[in-house]
Each structure stands twice: as C-alpha cells, then as structure tokens.
Automatic annotation (TrEMBL):
This is Stress-associated endoplasmic reticulum protein. It is a single-pass membrane protein. Belongs to the RAMP4 family. The keyword Transmembrane applies. It is found in: Membrane; Endoplasmic reticulum membrane. The keyword Methyltransferase does not apply. GO terms for cellular component: endoplasmic reticulum membrane.
Amino acid sequence: MAQTLEQRRRNAKFAREQEARMGKPESAIKKKEKKVVLKSPVSPFWLIILAFVVFGGLFFEVLASWFH
C-alpha cells in the first residue's frame, strides 16, 4: 500500500529530526514537553444547566418567602 502525502511529510519530518540528533549527547537534545491540560469531566453546558437549577431554585425560594 502506497504512502499518502501526509504520511510522507511526517516521515520526512521525523527523519530530519533524527538526523539532527545524531552524534549529540542526550543533554544537548531538546526534548519536547507536553503541557498537561486539566480538562473538566463535565462540559460547560452541563455546568451552566446545573448552576441554573441550583441557583434558580434558590432564587425562586427567596422570592416565594418574600411575597408569602
């Protein structure tokens, strides 16, 4: 199966990076550090719905106690 254009590009980039590393000590090679992004397990949409239910209910309870 033939390589796609994207695969060829990525393979060429990897080969260039490997050639640049050849003959250098590990301390001289810059390692890419991946940033850890903390991601909430609940989407923002559901957080807004939850806040509306909790605080909306509280708001209506306060209104009901004032006008009762």
